Amino acid sequence: QESVIKSLLHDIEKDLMRNQILTDGLRLDGRITTQIRPITIEHGLLARTHGSSLFTRGETQSLTTLTLGTKSDEQIIDGLDEEYKKRFILHYNFPPFSVGEVGRFGMTSRREIGHGNLAERALKNIIPSETIFPYSIRINSDIMESNGSSSMATVCAGSLALMDGGVPVKCAIAGIAMGLITENDKYSILSDISGNEDHLGDMDFKVAGSSNGITAIQMDIKIQGLSLEIMENALKQAKDGRLEILEKMNSVLPNPQNELSVYAPKQLTTQINPEKIGAVIGPGGKVIQGMQKEFGVDISIEEDGRVFISGQLKENVLKAKAKIIGLTSEPEIGKVYESKVVKIMDFGAFVEFMPNQQGLLHISQIDTKRVNKVQDVLKEGDMITVKLIKVENGKYSLSRKVLLSDEEQKEKSE
Predict the structure, then answer these.
(1) Which residue among 17, 47, 339, 389 is the one 20 to 30 A from 240 at the CA level?
(2) Which domains does the chain have, with CATH numbers?
């Protein structure tokens, strides 16, 4: 009997709700069909994260965080044909307490996977390219409460978290869930449906996008199909609702923050000749491991010669980048180098003018005055400035004399 009574009450509730919407245009919570629930937005509320936002629409709330990672943090996917990597990842969590239930926190449910994929599709096209923003990006949405359309709340909160974290996204993205009530030839389209309207209605049509277009859609219907007229009107009403939400989002956070969080890793990229990759890695990885240890950075090299350098201190990242450029750059005739004397000979000195690159500073090129003994002017370990004057058969000739001569000429002219 109890189950029969519950079923009858459910049918009565369904009929009353549908009739009220079709005849009076009023919904269970008193809204009209095009009205969106009250929205509140906060961002930057979790200071230790790289970006955060709290998006609340009615009784649906998403607490979303942004985490920026390095090249090595990209997700490796075993595809059907080949392995590939994802640099933008979105995770959606729907804990039982969000709907007033008690349950276990275990394996990710199919619902969480599906909603996460929808939100990820909605946001992935605004993510800047790797050349502009060389970070891996993870968005994590925790649903704090849910009464309809938590996936679209995730889209809004995810967009805000990206902007709060300083990711140079192309534009803001908002999402809205549309509903439908039909009876014979009469129909009514609902904006921003609640849980009851999803359960008792005929459609759950999620639409996400920017002010210029749609980035993701998903439709669930409980009727045999939709007419072209209903589809057109639903999309138009969804656009109006989306623009209204975007306006509220932009009023709180119109543009991405100018700087990344102080807690985000510092990352730079540089391009080297692929033939020089071996020089950066070194025998058995000795060179690259030495740099990582010396500067406290992580270095990742792609086959096409792109090098990603990341660490917590920007100063060390810059030093590592400079060293890599030094290891891979080609010596240029006429260029001046800060160099180190590594060996003294009777006929001159061998000088390391680039990383792992030595040249001969002949005794006649040490000074503008005659030098009888190299040791009278130079000793091993001295730092000197030299100019590359000749390259012959892979051997480099350097001069200190020409630089001293230039200085003397300059002093005389003054």
Answers:
(1) 17
(2) 2-252 (3.30.230.70), 266-328 (3.30.1370.10), 336-413 (2.40.50.140)
Tokens matching residue 367: 């000074």
Token representation of residue 230 = 């209903």
Q: Say whether 8 sits in a helix, a strand or coil.
A: helix
pLDDT single digits (tens) 285-322:
999 999 999 999 999 999 899 999 999 898 999 999 98
Taking the alpha carbons at both ends of the chain, their separation in whole angstroms is: 110
The values of phi and psi at residue 211, to 5°, are -75, -15
Strand partners, 386: 337
The candidate with the shortest Cα–Cα distance to 198, out of 28, 20, 5, is 28
What DSSP string describes 333-365? TT-EEEEEEEEEETTEEEEEEETTEEEEEEGGG
Question: CA-CA distance, 305 to 299, in Å (whole number)?
Answer: 12
Which residue is it, tokens 């709700």? 17
Complete edge-to-edge strand list for the sheet that includes strand 203-209: 186-191, 174-183, 203-209, 214-221
Q: Which tens digits make up the pLDDT trace of 334-381?
A: 889 889 999 999 999 999 988 778 899 999 999 988 888 999 899 999
Residue 384's H or E segment, with its range, is strand 383-392
Contact 254, 246 (CB under 8 A): no
Residues 6 or more apart whose CB falls under 8 angstroms from that of 390 comprise 333, 396, 397
